[in-house]
Amino acid sequence: ASVGCPVHDYYYNYINGGFSLKKEEFFSSLGLDAHRKLITFMLQSSGAGRDNGISYFLDNIRYFADCIINNRLNYSSQLIIRMHPDTSYNDYLSLRLEFEGAKNIFVQLAGKAFHTNEAIDNKVTKDALRYYCHLLTYSDIVVAGLSGVPVDCAIFDRPVITLLSSLSDLNKLKVNLAYLSKNDSSDVFCKY
To answer: Which tens digit of pLDDT belongs to each residue from 142-186?
Structure first.
């Protein structure tokens, strides 16, 4: 048993111990352009009774990608679409094929989930955590579903847009938040 979330201890040590890769090195290792803004779209888990992350957010993903491909943002940007570890491999391959050859669009399938017990058991490698820390550190903005990612963004002091996959997600929060529909969220994104 543990108290808290051990992965946050790793974040703390990472933030206070310096970065092992400079932005240029990290971007170069992924084929990214260090002079472009980095937008990271992190899909939520399809577990816990949620709508499937890929199917619900597919319209948003396509819209965001279209904004980047057609230079419709105020800044030269690139997009990493990082799919949750529980995303089916077929969904991952399908999305990867859809954006194959698209300039400045990158599709990734995350490794193991960062569940508390996996972090304790060292099933999530330090390299995977280090990669995730670099990704959050160097993302100019993160778009995520209702997950732990917005908390991680707060720890790393990164701006985040949280998209809700349904009104039931909003009801689960039990706080007074403005609900963004699929169409509304796209409008918010393009003001970035």
So the answer is: 998 878 888 899 989 999 998 876 655 555 544 333 443 334 444
Beta-carbon neighbour count of residue 123 at 10 Å? 14
Q: Whole-angstrom Cα distance, residue 146 to residue 28?
A: 30
Phi-psi sector, 176: left (phi>0), alpha (psi -120 to 50), beta:
beta
Helices then strands (H, E): number in the chain?
A: 9, 5
List strand residue ranges (DSSP E) for 75-140, in order.
77-83, 105-109
Query: What are the distances in angstroms from CA 157 to CA 16, 50, 109, 139, 154?
Result: 14, 27, 24, 11, 5
For the whole model, what pTM was predicted? 0.78
pLDDT in the model for residue 191: 42
In the chain, % helix, strand, coil (3-state, to 5) comes to 45, 15, 40
